[in-house]
Design brief:
By secondary structure, this protein is mainly α. The protein has 15 helices and no strands. The structure holds a DNA duplex.
DNA sequence: TATTAGTCAATAAT
DNA sequence: ATTATTGACTAATA
């Protein structure tokens, strides 16, 4: 309903403007968040926007959210992650997220033979001047960064680390989000459009550190003026820290077997009756509320998994002969637990149950396997041997639902009729959510490029691809869309020669791009060794 | 009242 | 030190 059809152009434009050149002047903002977590944040309901963002102009985010055009949540999270890693604000990992395999192999080989014989997948495809020098690699490999989700989440999104992690990992499609749920995405988009986004973050980081240092320093005399606002937990250290419970509910942790049992129950009946719930609770010796909560959470999370599958499938089209066996990310439903036979009835054993593991090669989405998920691609594999073997399905088992044997079954939930973006609003066709392997793009570094932001580096001739293109290019809503929305060119993958190889090369390029960027950075960040 | 959506926050996992 | 997972809450809906 909120989608005010038509006329969107105007609202979007105004919105865009605000977003685009919002007071270049500093940002100010109170911040000062680091010190006391005393923020009584939760309270912020609908009234003002006490959140992190400075109020500057009028519009509250909620208003922005209300008029925001459809956003590509998946693409946004993807870019956010890219920007953060590109700027050494990497998410996970202390060092670069470039796969340890690659780093290892590269360093090793470069050391051994500085200017030759480097055998790394994709290396040959790299233009000579794009090959990293050993120095670069060395520096890159030792670059360490601190910041991350917590900072970004609290500062930019006003959410806690865990929420951010979840959001970035499994964004729900825009049309399935409530107004509230869209807010974080709008904030992210706004942040992406902000030319100083990264700088601001780094500033925050610095400030936090400063505050931290100061705190330790001052420690000397002034003990901790910091109120131990903690509730009257009284440090009755007198006795063993046994006493105080109650106020600190222990957080229930379900045992794997219990989860198994619950999942089994779920498969039979996603919406158990109160009676069934009671039974389960009794059998498992759990509180009724726990069982209820579990079902709520499980349903919700299962649903989400379906969403992402939907997104990936859709965006990935089947065009290219892209390798990805896909099927479903290894993670898929929280079924990972796998058997865990652990005694317990083998009854009904759906059979199967072999652990799947191993996503396809370079599994599209994060696999979970490698440490550095994303970039992990470059799987060393010493010899870059052509590996004649049937490159077909290297994956284990047949591709069939790797996870829970049955699961999937049919007990599917009420499945709302996939209401597509049906809503009347026909406009804003939203140029597909191409996953595009492209990289760059996100680099918001450049100042407002303004209209012809054709920038598009890497891509270059890629457009060669016959097929698509045609009219598409024309309509290009470069104007508004590009400003507030998703640039994102269609990822026309030029298959041709071994696409897998190209992919690897692209990945390498991306890694190198990051290394160079980090290495050339003057000195804003510290390089730790 | 039952469910879903969104989050938090403790704690697991890397 | 970070990121990921997940039981429990709080609103919003149906």
């Amino acid at each position: 309903a909120p989608d005010s059809p038509m006329s969107s152009s105007e609202s979007v434009k105004s919105l865009t403007e605000l977003v685009q050149q919002p007071c270049p002047p500093i940002e100010t903002n109170k911040d000062g968040k680091p010190p006391e977590p005393s923020d009584p944040p939760a309270s912020d309901s609908q009234p003002a926007t006490p959140l992190p963002l400075s109020g500057h102009s009028a519009l509250s985010i909620q208003e922005l959210v209300a008029m925001s055009p459809e956003l590509d949540t998946y693409g946004i999270t993807k870019r956010v992650k890219e920007v953060l890693t590109d700027n050494n604000l990497a998410f996970r990992a202390a060092s670069f997220s470039l796969g340890p395999c690659f780093r290892q192999a590269a360093l090793c080989q470069l050391r051994a033979a500085p200017r030759s014989a480097v055998r790394i997948d994709g290396w040959q495809e790299l233009q000579r001047d794009r090959r990293p020098s050993m120095a670069l690699l060395l520096r890159g490999s030792t670059a360490v960064c601190r910041p991350c989700q917590r900072l970004f989440g609290e500062t930019i999104l006003g959410l806690t680390q865990g929420s951010v992690s979840d959001l970035l990992a499994r964004p729900k499609p825009w049309h399935k989000l409530s107004l509230k749920g869209r807010e974080p995405f709008v904030r992210m988009q706004l942040w992406l459009n902000d030319p100083n986004n990264v700088e601001k973050l780094m500033d925050m980081k610095r400030m936090e550190k400063k505050a931290y240092m100061k705190r330790r320093h001052s420690s000397v005399s002034d003990s901790q003026p910091c109120e131990p606002p903690s509730v009257g937990v009284d440090y009755s250290q007198g006795a063993s820290p046994q006493p105080q419970h109650q106020l600190k509910k222990p957080r229930v942790v379900l045992a794997p077997e219990e989860k198994e049992a619950l999942k089994r129950a779920y498969q039979q009946k996603p919406y158990p009756s109160p009676k069934t719930i009671e039974e389960l609770a009794t059998q498992l010796n759990l509180k009724t509320s726990t069982v209820i909560n579990w079902f709520h959470n499980y349903r919700s999370r299962i649903r989400r998994e379906l969403f992402i599958e939907e997104i990936q499938a859709g965006s990935q089209g089947q065009a290219g002969a892209s390798d990805s066996p896909s099927a479903r990310s290894g993670r898929a439903a929280p079924s990972s637990e796998g058997d865990s036979c652990d005694g317990v009835e083998a009854t009904e054993g759906p059979g199967a149950a072999d652990a799947e593991e191993s996503g396809g090669p370079v599994a599209a989405a994060k696999s979970q396997g490698g440490p550095a998920a994303e970039v992990a691609a470059a799987p060393e594999e010493r010899e870059e041997a052509p590996r004649p073997a049937e490159k077909t399905e290297p994956p284990p088992s047949g591709t069939p639902t790797p996870d829970i044997a049955d699961d999937e079954g049919r007990p599917r939930a009420p499945r709302p009729p996939v209401e597509g973006p049906a809503d009347g609003s026909g406009p804003v066709p939203n140029p597909a959510a191409a996953p595009a392997a492209g990289e760059d793009a996100a680099t918001s570094a450049a100042p407002p490029g303004e209209g012809p932001c054709k920038a598009l580096a890497g891509a270059d001739r890629s457009s060669a691809l016959p097929s698509t293109s045609a009219p598409a290019a024309a309509r290009r809503a470069s104007s508004l869309q590009s400003l507030f929305g998703l640039p994102e060119a269609v990822g026309a993958r030029d298959s041709r020669d071994n696409p897998l190889r190209k992919k690897k090369a692209a990945n390498l390029n991306s890694i190198i791009h990051r290394l160079e960027k980090a290495a050339s950075r003057e000195e804003p960040i510290e390089w730790e060794f």
